[in-house]
Amino acid sequence: MNYKELIATALDNALEGQLKKETIIQTIEKPKSLALGDFAFPTFPLAKILRKAPQVIAQEIAAKISIKEFEEVQAVGPYVNFFLDKRSYSDTILHQILAERAAYGNQDLGQQGKVPIDMSSPNIAKPISMGHLRSTVIGNSIAKILAKTNYQPVKINHLGDWGTQFGKLIEAYKLWGSEEEVKADPINKLLEYYVRFHKEDVAHPELDDEARAWFKRLEDGDAEAITLWKWFRSESLKSFMRIYNKLGVEFDSFNGEAFYNDKMDEVVTLLEKKGLLQESRGAQIVDLSKYNLNPALIKKTDGATLYITRDLAAAIYRKRTYDFSQSLYVVGNEQTNHFKQLKAVLKELGEDWSDDIHHIPFGLITQGGKKLSTRAGRVILLDEVLDDAVALAKKQIEEKNPQLADKELVAKQVGVGAVIFHDLKNERMNNFDFDLEEVVRFEGETGPYVQYAHARAMSILRKAAKQDLNETKSAAYQLNDEDAWEVLRLLGSFSAIIKRAVTEYEPSVVAKYSLHLAKSFNKYYAHTKVLTSDDQLIARVALVKSVAVVLKESLRLLGVQAPVEM
Ligand code: ARG
Q1: Taken in order 382, 383, 389, 392, is the CA torsion positive or negative?
Q2: Which residues of the chain have pLDDT under 50?
Q3: What pTM was computed for the model?
Q4: Domains plus CATH for the chain?
C-alpha cells in the first residue's frame, strides 16, 4: 500500500489545487518519533500562497481530511500529522508477509537485466586478503539483493592470474624454491618466496630485470614458464575454494586476467584504429588529460600488456557476452583511479555503455588501527580467521545452550555469519578495525545478535505449534499496542529498505535494518507475553512468524545463515 500517495491525494483534494501534487508528495515527511504520527505535512510552503499563519492552515487541513487507513489526522503547530490505523495496518502487513514469505519485499526494478559483478578476484600465489574478503561478501550480498529486485546477477571472479608478479614469483621460485616445499604448504611457501623477493630486490635491482624477463617468456608461451604458472594457479585456486566453501559463496565464472590473453590484440588494434595510442618513451599510452586523469599505460616498452589492458578486454567481452544493463566492480577504494581510467578509455573508444560501468569501492580493514600489507608480511589469514570465529562461537554456544543438538553446524553458521555480518554492517566506504572477540559477541551490533533474535522467534513458534491455535487464513491480525507498533512499522518498511540497498549498492542498509528489527522485536518480547490466551493470541503469533520470515530473509540477503536454534 502506498500510504504517501493516499495522503497526497487527500491533501490535494483538501487544498483544491493550491499546491501541485508533486510538491505535496515531496513535502510529506516522516516524523522523528512515532509519537508524532507516521507521516507529517509541514504547511510552511503554503503560508505565502494563502497569506495565513502555518498553524491556522494546519488546523483547517486537519479538519477537512479523513482517510480510511488512518485513525487520526491531527494539527500540531504548523504540521498536519497522520496516524495510521494500527489495526488495519497490522492486519494488512501481517497477512501480506505470511502469504508471500521469502518473496516479501521482492520488486521488479531490474526487469531481468543482466549485471556482471566483478568480485573477490584474489591474486594467485598470494593468500586471499581481508580486502578480497570484503569484495567477496559485499559482492555476494549485492548479487542477492539484485536478484531480489529482478536483475540477473553474474558473479565473476576476475582472478589475478596474470601480470608481472608472476615473473617475480617464477624468479623467486627458481632461486629459492623447492617442489616439495610448495607441495606441502603451497600458499604460505609461495607467499614466502614473494615476500623474500621484495626484500632482496632492494639491494639487487637486477632481480627485477630477471622477473620482467620471466613474465615476457610467460606471455610468449614459454613451456617452462607456463608449466610453473599453471601449477601455482591450480594450487592457489584449491586454497581459495576452501575459503569460498566456508563462506558459502559461489561464482558463475572464474575467468581471470589470463582468460583475456588472446583478446588483447583486438583491444590494441581498436585503440590504434581510433588513433588513441601514443608512444611515450617506448611505451604505448592513451592520453586522458581531458578527463583530468593520468595516461593509461596499455603496453610496456617490451610489449607486455598491463592490468588495464586486460580490464579493457574484459569489459568489452562482458558487454558482448551478457549485454548487461549495468556492470559492477566490487574493488577497494584504492583502485578508484584505475576504474576512472578504464571508463574514460572506453568512452574514447565510443563505447557509450561505459556509463553503465560502476566501480563499487570499499574501505580498508585495519588491525589495531594499522593498514594490512602482504609485502610487509602483515596479513590476517582469512582461513584462520574463519576457523577462530567458529571456535569462539562454539565456546559461547557451549555456555549458553549446552543441550543444543547440532552444535558443530550451528557454530559454523554463527562464526562465519559473524565475520560476514561485521563486514556488511558498516557502510562499505568506512574503514573498520578487525577484532575477533568483538565480531563474534552475542550482544551488541553483531550477526549472532540478529541470528539469536531469529532463533528466539522460532522457539516461540515451536511452543505455539504445540498449542492448538486454530489459525485460519482469514483470521484478523489486528494488533494495536505500542510495543507491536514499532515492529510492525519496521516490517512494513522492508521493501523500501531493499530498494535503497540496491540503488546505493549498500548491503549495510539491510544489515542495519536487521539489527533494528531484532532490537525492537527483543523489546516487544520483553514487554509482551506472546503465548497468553486472549483474543489477540493468533495475531501475536502472526507477528512473531512475520519477524522470523523477515529476519531470515534479511540475513539471507547478506549471505548469513539463520539457524532455528542456537
Ligand atoms: N586482483 C586485483 C587485486 O587483488 C583485483 C581485481 C579487480 N577486478 C578487476 N577487474 N580489475 O587487487
Answers
A1: negative
A2: none
A3: 0.93
A4: 3-84 (3.30.1360.70)
